[in-house]
Structures are given as C-alpha cells and as structure tokens.
Amino acid sequence: MVERTERLLNFSPLPLKLKPELTLNLTLELLRLRSKLPNIETTLPPSQATHALTPGLHLDARHVLWLPEHRTLVAADLHLGYVWAHRQAGQLLPISAPEDTIDRLEALVSEYHPAQLILLGDIVHRALPIPAIRLQLDNLRTRLAATTIRWIAGNHDRNLEPLLPDILLETELTLAPHLLIHGDQATSAILACLDPNAWLIMGHEHPAINVHDRVTTSVKCPCFLVAPRILILPAFSPWSAGSNIRTTQFLSPLARETQFTAAYAVLANHLLPIPL
C-alpha cells in the first residue's frame, strides 16, 4: 500500500526512520494535501526538492531561494556565532555541536554557480568582537570568494560594520521587479510602492509549521511562507527551531497584517505544500 501510494505521488520513500504505519499516514496526508491543491506541482526528486513558485522564484528545500533570471541565491537568518554569543552572555551552549552553516552554503554555491549570493539579514546572532565570530565571518568570505556576496542588515546585525569594515551593509536590495529586505520593520504600506508584478522577499520570522499523522505523532518543520506577492524564507541557521505559524504571533508588522495562503514545509529534504 505504501509503495503504491508513493508511486501515485511520484514520491520516493521518506528518508526517515519511521514505523510503517506512520509512513503510511504521512503518505496519505500528502495525498490529501495534493487533492486540496490540484494546481500545485508536488512531484519531488529523490535527493532534494525545488518548487517554482513563479517562473522567476524557485524554492529549494535546503532553505534557500533561487532567482534564475538574476542567477541569484538568497539565504536568510544565518545567525553565525550563535553558540559564542550565548556563551559570552553566560549561557554555556556546547561548542562541540556541529556548525555546518558555511558548509551548506558552500555546497549550494558550488551547485548553482550564482552570480551573487544575498544574505537576507541576521547574518550573525550578535556582532561581538570576539575571535570565534571574526573567524566565522572570515571563513564565510574566504570559502565563498568565488561569488559576490550582498549583505542585507537585520536586527541582529547591529554593530556588524566594525567586524566587516570593507563591505557594504545594505538595508534593502532590488532585483527588478522584486524587493528583498530582512523584514523586521516592514509594514503592508511597502507593497503599495512596488510594481504590481513584484514580490516582497524577506526573512526574520523563522517560520515553521507542524506536520502530523492525525493520530499521535507530529513534527515541527521549517517552511517557506506565502501570501499574494509576499514570500518569507525559513531560517538557514541550524540552531533555529522555528516559530509555529499557527500558534505564535508574528514578529513584523507586515506579517501580522498579512493573510498567508500557503506554507511549503521542509520535510525530509522535500517541500510539502500546505494550504492555510
């Protein structure tokens, strides 16, 4: 039954260690969601998933956005130095925990070969002038030297300029016709200033959504969050558990004022469309 259902979905088995009955329940949930969104393509490749939200905006389950017309890769909320910022504040997070943020970015840049990489704010968790955070920023620039990095400031990036004195830290960026911002200060008024075909692309919210089997098991998944002409990216940081969009108040005025229509949950390296 599971194999037959997966063939109907063109969907390879979820690479999770799940009991057979849970795998079946999640697969049936995929079928239910697909039937509610008949116009959304949910054919998923075996090792990764991408989805063309529009011809120029491609979601990637590895928490990034690809704009093929601009050959631009976008990642939000890296929060580099998360552990060291907390340790500096007296909260002894383990320094032995793996930190793969730059490794993952480097792999994506190697695959996409972008003309530019846009870091959509909250590049660091806290801009402290300590060796560990300076080293992470140096590693980021050295290992991604093959592409141009554009730096958009987020609310966590206060005092980042002294750590990166030779870079331009921007507050927003236009990739015609789209506007890219971090989003902490955004309001709905910003949409009135945009081209009717433009999307507002932002981070800041760390969106996540619970996916469950309708019995006893659920998992919180990071997600892309979509409304007409608005796209919010999931946090790229491995430390971000995400904020449940169904139960947690949004941080930015814009998100609080917006009626979102869909989420694309990142589940086992696939994108699961969920109507809202």
Quick take:
By secondary structure, this protein is an alpha/beta fold. It has one domain (2-275).
Order of helices and strands: HHEEEEHHEHEEEEHEEEEEHEE
State the secondary-structure class: alpha/beta
Task: Tell how many strands the DSSP assignment holds.
Answer: 16
Percent strand: 25-35%
Question: What's the main sheet like?
Answer: 9 strands, mixed
Low-pLDDT windows of residues: 1-21, 37-47
Helix content class: 10-25%
How far apart lie the N and C ends? 29 Å
Set out the fold topology.
Blueprint lengths: L1 H8 L10 H17 L13 E5 L2 E4 L3 E4 L4 E4 L6 H7 L12 H12 L3 E5 L10 H13 L4 E5 L16 E2 L1 E4 L2 E4 L7 H4 L7 E3 L4 E6 L5 E10 L2 E3 L10 E2 L8 H5 L4 E6 L2 E6 L1
Parallel strand pairs: 4-5, 5-6, 6-7, 9-10, 10-13, 11-14
Antiparallel strand pairs: 1-2, 2-3, 3-4, 8-9, 11-12, 12-13, 12-15, 15-16
How is this structure best described in words?
By secondary structure, the protein is of the alpha/beta class. It has one domain. Helix content is 24%, strand content 26%. The chain has seven helices and 16 strands. The chain has helices spanning 2-9, 20-36, 82-88, 101-112, 131-143, 189-192, 253-257, and strands spanning 50-54, 57-60, 64-67, 72-75, 116-120, 148-152, 169-170, 172-175, 178-181, 200-202, 207-212, 218-227, 230-232, 243-244, 262-267, 270-275. The strands form two sheets. Strands 8, 9, 10, 11, 12, 13, 14, 15 and 16 form a nine-stranded mixed sheet that branches. Strand 5 (116-120), helix 5 (131-143) and strand 6 form a beta-alpha-beta unit. Helix 1 runs parallel beside helix 2. The model is unreliable at 1-21 and 37-47 (pLDDT under 50).
